[in-house]
Specification:
single chain; 199 residues; mainly alpha
């Protein structure tokens, strides 16, 4: 008390926080994640049409795989863990956008749809790999240097990124090939890269 001011504290307000706050926060975060995923699916289908349908199915499969693996490894889902999952969903969408933009460029260059799909995945691979590997390195640093919730975030982020690569490079590819095989072979279903005007 040496040097302390001679003041008396007066209580203005007090709140009692119950255990239900954490569960409510997790529930609202999951709802927000589901709404975000639905908006992304609508956007991908509206912009990319058939590839968007393939990526939407792949994203749903990806989300189910993440939940199953988290349950299998008995990982406690915290707010930071949910943030890691949502971020990795964004990475998966980003990978799909890169692939489909490449496919459109190849169609605009005069390739057939089949060859454009093959070239699109092949040319997008290095960019997707580089982006995901750097994020995995960051997740590893967070895990070894961080504690508590930071570690939970890094675990879900790393798991999500590995699964997002599988989703974008394997599942999406199989789905697009399947849709192409059942009759969606016209380039109008895949779009064409718009020519940029040079000003």
């Amino acid at each position: 008390r040496i040097g302390g001011l001679k003041l008396e504290l007066e209580e203005l307000r007090s709140n009692v926080v119950g255990a239900q706050l954490g569960s409510a926060a997790v529930r609202t975060s999951l709802i927000a994640g589901a709404i975000g995923l639905a908006i992304v699916i609508v956007f991908m289908i509206a912009v990319y049409w058939i590839p968007g349908v393939a990526s939407s199915i792949a994203l749903c499969i990806y989300t189910v795989l993440v939940v199953l693996l988290l349950n299998g490894f008995d990982v406690t889902l915290t707010l930071s863990g949910i943030a890691g999952i949502i971020l990795s969903i964004g990475m998966a969408v980003d990978a799909n956008v890169i692939i489909y933009a490449r496919i459109r460029e190849e169609i605009s260059a005069g390739r057939s749809v089949r060859n454009a799909i093959l070239a699109g995945f092949q040319k997008a691979f290095s960019a997707i790999l580089d982006g995901n590997v750097t994020t995995l390195i960051a997740a590893g640093i967070l895990y070894f240097m961080g504690t508590g919730t930071i570690r939970g975030f890094s675990i879900t982020l790393a798991l999500g990124i590995v699964l997002s690569m599988i989703s974008a490079l394997l599942i999406s590819r199989m789905l697009i090939s399947a849709l192409y095989g059942v009759g969606f072979k016209d380039e109008k279903f895949f779009g064409r890269q718009k020519e940029r005007k040079i000003v």
